[in-house]
Amino acid sequence: MSAGDVVIIGAGMAGLACARALAAAGKAPLVIDKGRGIGGRMATRRVALAGGEVAFDHGAQYFSVRDPGLAALLDALPDAVGDWEIGRPRRVGRPGMSALPRAMAAGLEVRQGVTVTALRPTPEGWEIITDRAPLHAAQVVLTVPAPQVAGLLGASHPLVAALRGVAIAPCLTLMAAFPPDAPRPFAARGRDDHPLAWIAQDSTKPGRAAPVTAWVAQASAEWSTAHLEEPPEAIAERMLPMLAEALGTDPATALHARAHRWRYARVTAPLGAPFLRSADGALWLGGDWCLGPRVEAAWQSGTAIAQDLLERGDVR
Q: Which pLDDT score, from 0 to 100, does residue 245 have?
């Protein structure tokens, strides 16, 4: 790729928000991501079970909207969002959380399955080393979790020091399915004093016609940290009995149980600013870790980076 283009690393909410804002201004950013899907933690796992497919939102569970700009985006993508009634309406992707980032990516150039291993400065900007051919760009927007930045830029890069106060906790997640007649004591439950800090009946979300009862349980930061390095199978074996006890059912009746490890899940100490920019104006760092543990925070960070890029006036 020729120098002069903007490359955005990370196709989560921050990266997509940045790319959409640049594209709306007539620019042509390239978004690359190591995953097979897009959306980062706005993720939906689909599993084929007897009777049909079941969807689990195994990352972000819902999101709130305060920013008028994000509200306008959702108004423009009504088919990709819905309201989940759990005490008060929460916004969710429809039919899964991943529906919103997929809709946001429409019309953008997004390359998936591209793993970035290093960023090297050049006289024209940056060389992006990947597991495929290298890319070259005048400007790079890096929206990976803050703890991963040093591995790409090097520990001596000036921006790395600014990230030392940022903290992100892990989260271990269980995706479980039970027969349709299994107990359903609640649609969602949050408990700070329990190893399963969050339990959600995903099959109550809008657009979720499922042949079974689908549940997502997310462990507390403390429990997740204690068991982070265990194999997913062992994590599922630990979490399933706790979920079954909370539901009042037998874990042996589970039709499906799989665990997912989010190493960087919930921001506990944000940067306190929407982004970081290098002194030469060739590199931006952003993500939810800049402002807080919210989908909206990631959107605000990516949007702010795009505005800064456009205000500088040197984006193609």
A: 98
What is the chain's length? 316
- Residue 188's DSSP bridge partners are 200
Could you give the count of Cα atoms lying within 13 Å of 265 in the half-sphere of its Cβ?
22
Say if residue 51's pLDDT is above 80. Answer: no
**Cα 271–chain centre separation:** 18
Residues 285, 302 contacting (CB under 8 angstroms): no
Q: Peptide bond preceding 95: is omega within 30 degrees of 0, i.e. cis?
A: yes
Between CA 141 and CA 312 the distance in angstroms is: 14
145 touches 168 (CB < 8 A): yes
First to last CA, the chain: 13
Which residue segments constitute the domains of the chain, with CATH numbers given?
A: 6-42+98-166+270-312 (3.50.50.60), 168-267 (3.90.660.10)
> Of 40, 45, 29, whose CA–CA distance to 173 is shortest?
45
Max CA distance (Å), the chain: 64
CA distance 277 to 286: 9
* The pLDDT of residue 309: 95
In a 13 Å sphere around the CA of 295, the CA atoms on its Cβ side amount to: 26
Q: What is the mean pLDDT of the chain?
A: 95
Whole-prediction pTM? 0.95
